[in-house]
Amino acid sequence: MNYGRNDGQKNFFLEMENHQISAQEFFSPFMLEALERNFGLNNVNIVYFDTHGKFLSWTDKTGGAQEAETHPYRDFVPEDIVRRNIYDDAVSDHLTYFDIEPRIYRATDIVTDYEESVYVDFLEKYLNAHYSLTMAFGINAYIQLVFLREESEGDFSEDDLSYMKDIYSYIAMAYKNFKKYEQVKIISKIQGEIISSGERAYLITDDFMHVLDHSDEAVKRLEELMGSVGRIDSDTPCGWLPFLLGVSDDDISEVHNRTIKNYIYTIHDYPKRYSNGIVDMYHWITIHKKDVVSDTLSANDSSPEAVASYCMGELTKTEQKVASFMAKGYTYKEIAAEMMISFHTVKKHVENIYEKCHVNSRYQLMKLLGGK
Prior knowledge:
The protein is an alpha+beta fold. The protein folds into 3 domains: 5-180, GAF domain (Beta-Lactamase, 2-Layer Sandwich), CATH 3.30.450; 199-290, Beta-Lactamase, CATH 3.30.450; 293-369, Arc Repressor Mutant, subunit A (Orthogonal Bundle). It is 46% helix and 18% strand. It has a 6-stranded antiparallel β-sheet, with helices on both faces. The chain has a 5-stranded antiparallel β-sheet with strand order 8-7-11-10-9.
């Protein structure tokens, strides 16, 4: 095994850093080639699963990806005790793509009666190998690097394990950086949709209890629901997030609504799909107050016209003028020019309008004022 670590580590990081600018996926034939160039690791496969441990696909450095339906591993999955141990450990430890503590599994440490096992039979029949060492990455170990050796090369020694732990750390750090870079792009795209919708109370989350971005208004409304929500940042899991994301398995739509106390939580799913079959799910959650306007009006006077008149009556003359321009589709910049006020003053008026009319977006305001 090649033990030229320092130069290999530096080159590996540089290659993967440059690659991430245009790459759609981190664990790819390019990464396998980088492992061979920098560390001399030339018999490596990548196995992909979903977050529930279901086999999705398999690839090697030739790029010859095979989906589950055509790969012989599909029939071996129920017999693969190594995979089962890896998955159970990952679920128990809540493994994500930001964990960098080495997770390395030598098959001979796990499989009993190794030489006579079906595990060895599979390696020899389909992979021309006798020994394996597996590294686990990502949510519930949904990506696994399998390093293989022929019988003549011998099993992975204790020195090899120590070396491979270093390799794991290099890969895990580069993967973490890749995911951070990828998430910045995803968050930016979602923020664009949120800005277009005019929502003020929102959260952007992953599917693993992390809030990636949020507004102060969202925190305020969450605290009205749950009291203190504690620290919110992208590195600290939020124990209350599964409560908000608790959508029925029967609901297969990409937009879900939940009513909790006086608020409506609208959950928008944002799936990030990869060619290997993995899907990373992100969400943006908007928080709306229930329609207190209609509740304020009498039961006999809740027509759209009455609702619109009520709301306009709650606004100052300046706010009424801003609301009228908004209903006509004017942008903030255009409203500022028409009224000869600053852009920021327009934004402040809009905030007041939303608060008084109990809406969260331009669309809701236009719908509400449609009857006026």
